[in-house]
Amino acid sequence: MTLPARMKLLQIEAPGHAAWKDAPLPQPAAGEVLIRVLGVSTCPHWDMHIFDGQPMFPGMKLEYPYLPGQPGHEAMGEVVALGADVTKLRVGDHVVAWRDTGKPRRGFYAQFNTFHENDLLVLPATLSPAAVASLELAMCVEVSFQQLAALGGPLGRIGLSGLGPAGLVAVQLAKAHGASEVIAFDPVAERRALALTLGADRALAPDAAQWPASRQSDALDNAIDLTGVPPAIEFLMDRTRRCVTLFGVLREQVRFGTQHLFGPGLILSGYGDHNRAAAETALRFIVEGKLHLAPLITQTMPFTRYAEAVDLLRRKQAIKILFDPWA
Length: 327
Known about the structure:
NAD(P)-bd_dom_sf, Quinone Oxidoreductase, Chain A, domain 1, metal-binding, zinc, 8 helices, Rossmann fold, Zn_alcohol_dh, globular, 7-stranded mixed sheet, 6-stranded parallel sheet
């Protein structure tokens, strides 16, 4: 294809204000490829924090105008040009970003973006943007299952706290990894209903009266918290025999008490490292039909409606928004 000299990209110029504007077409550096972006999905907490002028992580420094194309990182597209020394990809390959390195650089909220070939996976051309753009999220959640797998033994009955995008992915990954029962907790009835359609055996409100605290009778074998909220984490800790692993961004302290020391002692596990094996596992589950990301997409929008999209996320009227850079 003939490449244009210019393109459109999104830039958050100040808290609460984003512009869809002209920019030069980027050129791939050594080891990079140029991607024509076909679809990119929101990462709700990133979008809400950055658009609202709040740090995503404690101590994070924000400067505006924010980096062009950021915080877009859940993206798929087609390789249209190669930089020097590229050996793994070819023009025409459909690819998906499997990790965000965290280094300051342009993001995928754009019509084109450059990315290092090591940070991309080749896709079957039949996979739609909705089906695979959020692979990076699935990779992140798969890391928590790697943490549990490192302990050995079956998952058994697993509890999942929080049914945002990560929790809905975790429901499916738990089934794909052979959990005997998946019990999901969330206060929002609509998200509990969606979790049931995606494979949860039970979806409950985190109500202590409905599920009294006990690490003995009727307890969970393992659990993953996907909220980062101490009451949600402690709810799982009080009802889990072996391990609670943390996925959500933790901003406050969690109480580990005497009730967690014995019978046997509860393991409270932190997060692991993003890795290609986790991404490849998630992609394999997508191809095998065990992981469905399209149901997480509430709506597809053009970037000219970015502020509206973030507001839908903020009011929990959308789980994820898929942006079409060409709409």
